[in-house]
Amino acid sequence: IEIRALSLMELVYLLGSLISTLFTSLLLSLLLPFRRRSHSHSLSFYKGTVFHERRRPIHHSFTYSVRYALIDLDSASSSANSLPNHLSADEARRVSATNGPVFLLTIPESVGYEQNPLSIYYCYDLEEGSAQNLRNCIAEVTNTPWGERVTFVFNPNSDLVAKPLHVSPFMDMFGNWNIKASVPGDNLSVAISVQHPTLGNYFTATLRAKKVPLSSVSDESLYFWLMPHKVAVWIYWHVSGRQAMVEKCFIYSTSKVFQSDIQGRSDSSRSKTSML
């Protein structure tokens, strides 16, 4: 009974959130032609694909197109393009123990809606001769639709962190995330794999993107229009629309009632990674 009640509450919350988002986004979309076009020199634009593959207990994979912004946080903090839902450049430097520029890879809000399963802060150190070295990254992970968020530092070359957040109804809270990120340039990539104590390396998620010339983006708002919404649609579709997954995989709730089995896990598995 308690499980059904929790599931019903989550469903009601989800439906209410969807209705509110649809109404707000429709209204703001109608106003887009009447607003002043914006273009910030603190942004770089990327276009690529996200790939997810689950290999056990049944195989399931999908790919979708995505657009990201790489934001120079030092420039953004001094402009009108503030980012209240993210760390500032100074906060990121403090957390990552770096002294150089900070860039944020994220999907900007569009017509009143934000959906960012994963944002990455690239934190550089300044070395002799003004050379920049990517020393640390900060991952900002948000689950859907609950909006719970964790933030942690990792070595971009490769690092391991004990799974800190419930992100999928088809996965338990055991295991570690192996995460790595390339230096952003004309191309960038982020890869995460799950190392599970019984299922092994059973899940992989990757982002691969190419830089888009600034000359081809005349309006930031139109470039990212409905991008967060599209990401949300993909998430909901692959959670609720895949009957085979629902039938053959155990469903794990985000409720603390179902997370009690992870209490007492050793912090030693969070190698070289610090939680905020």
From TrEMBL:
Transmembrane segment boundaries: 12-34
Pfam families: DUF1365 (PF07103)
Presence of keyword Transmembrane: yes
Keyword Transmembrane helix carried by entry: yes
Keywords (A to Z) from UniProt: Membrane, Transmembrane, Transmembrane helix
Protein name in the entry: Uncharacterized protein
Species annotation: Cannabis sativa (Hemp)
